[in-house]
């Protein structure tokens, strides 16, 4: 009986096994065709099976500052690589606590799923960044601790990037969210893979009942990424010369208006004059600020003085600072405060600084208000 012999040769390339067949014909040509068909069928089937085993399920991003990849899900394993915050990974397989992933450089390994977020979270932060990329800065801030950038205010909302303690950010907006009273593992979990490092968003050990509100800041970091951070983790970087006049109030935002020249003991210098907006030192208020103060520099006494103060404002960020020409007065600093009335309608109040005097700039047909808007708590 005529026969043929098929010898299989295995070739390994980039982790994929391909089967090639060498057909040695012993007799008639029809046997050649049969053997070749069988060999090609086997060759096509094996790679397909292998590709299914490495099929990409989805894309994920690393939410920890850094994390290691392991070669297997076991108590004893080898580390095959490291990944960093924000890095894009392809998910090949999932188990209860781990996912098998592949990096852009082709490294494959297992990683804890708690260090990953999905494409929707990544897209949400990208959208938030685009929408607020041109927002005016209300104040610079410095982070007290490692802090997460969230898509929306809230300790347990989705987050991706983690900013390190001491990082400088630009404060853009304020909002409030209910303080989490549940000591859930999710709320307490650190994003850091380093032992002993805890997330700056972790709730306190004991939280009061009734889910009180807490403040959140929308910030932009040095890389231009935008997200929400817990306000108590951010120190507003107010110049010390101004901060000492806060009188127990919280400076929410401050703005350089202009500078003046001063000569003290023969030394000439330029001193900045500021607008500050302040509020009571409590979270969860229904307004962003309730006071506005302008600090001007007294060139005779060489110190800051309060040139203007307005209280009982139902103020809403952002505050806008610019310059305008006022004919005989020349070009002067101008700032606009946005205030909300009892019906929730927001109106703008414009002011000009002609050192050391601050005056309202009325729009055509506008009359000065005799009474301030009632303050809400």
Low-confidence stretches: 1-28, 42-52, 183-209, 371-377
Structural class: mainly beta
> Would you report the number of β strands?
24
Number of H- or I-type helical stretches:
4
The percentage of residues in β strands lies in over 45%
What is the first-to-last residue Cα distance?
99 Å
Question: Helix coverage percent of residues?
Answer: 10-25%
Main pleated sheet: 5 strands, antiparallel
Radius of gyration: 32 Å
* Molecular shape: elongated
Mean pLDDT comes to 82
What's the quaternary structure here? single chain
Order of helices and strands: EEHEEEEEEEHEEEEHEEEHEEEEEEEE
Query: Largest sheet, order of strands side by side?
Result: 8-7-6-3-9
Could you walk me through the main structural features you see in this protein, from its secondary elements to its overall organization?
The chain is mainly beta. Among the domains are: 4-53, no CATH class; 58-120, SH3 Domains (SH3 type barrels, Roll); 239-377, no CATH class. The chain has helices at 29-53, 119-132, 185-188, 240-243; strands spanning 4-13, 16-25, 58-62, 66-70, 79-84, 88-94, 98-102, 108-112, 116-118, 139-143, 147-150, 159-163, 168-178, 213-220, 226-230, 234-236, 250-264, 267-279, 291-298, 303-310, 315-325, 331-340, 346-354, 357-361. It starts with a strand and ends in a 16-residue tail after the last strand.
